[in-house]
């Protein structure tokens, strides 16, 4: 078993109002995201298969509205919703968003490496 306060998760990324905290626990990463309105991660995912995140995520929307783009269209997720995002998605914050998600660390690591490399990775 495992429990943590979101504020105790280490900060992994800060860019203006965008903040990501997260940590691996037994092969799963727990992450807390704060995305300001207008954040669109589609450009950062270019070069991945379908130009989409290839890691599944399970989580809960704490605040705001997030549009998830997929090859089949898009769907909005709002405050108070639990979610599952299968591999093959790209998020866009329509409002200031805050959410918690849980992801397989290995798959997430490949996506993060791609983003941090500026899209040079073939993850």
Please give the CATH architecture.
Answer: Sandwich
- Number of E strands: 9
Strand order of the largest sheet: 1-2-3-9-4-7
CATH superfamily: Jelly Rolls
Which term fits the overall shape? Answer: globular
> How much of the polypeptide forms β-strand, as a percent range?
over 45%
Distance between the termini: 31 Å
CATH class identity: Mainly Beta
Strand-and-helix sequence, N→C? EEEHEEEEEEH
The biggest sheet, with number of strands, parallel, antiparallel or mixed sense and barrel status, is:
6 strands, antiparallel
Instruction: Output the radius of gyration.
Output: 14 Å
Q: Quaternary state, please?
A: single chain
Summed up, the domain count is 1
Rounded mean pLDDT is 93
- Total number of helices: 2
Low-confidence stretches at least 5 residues in length (pLDDT < 50)? Answer: none
Residue share in helix: 10-25%
Structural class: mainly beta
Question: How is the CATH topology named?
Answer: Jelly Rolls
Feature tags:
single chain; 123 residues; mainly beta; Jelly Rolls; 2 helices; 13% helix; 46% strand; globular
């Amino acid at each position: 078993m495992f429990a943590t306060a979101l504020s105790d998760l280490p900060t992994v990324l800060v860019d203006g109002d965008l903040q990501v905290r997260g940590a691996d626990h037994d092969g799963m990463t727990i992450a807390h995201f704060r995305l300001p309105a207008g954040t669109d991660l589609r450009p950062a995912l270019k070069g991945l298969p379908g130009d989409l995140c290839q890691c599944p995520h399970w989580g809960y929307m704490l605040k705001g509205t997030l549009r998830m783009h997929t090859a089949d269209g898009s769907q909005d997720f709002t405050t108070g919703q639990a979610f599952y995002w299968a591999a093959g998605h790209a998020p866009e914050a329509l409002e200031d968003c805050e959410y918690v998600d849980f992801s397989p660390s290995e798959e997430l690591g490949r996506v993060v490496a791609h983003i941090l490399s500026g899209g040079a990775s073939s993850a």
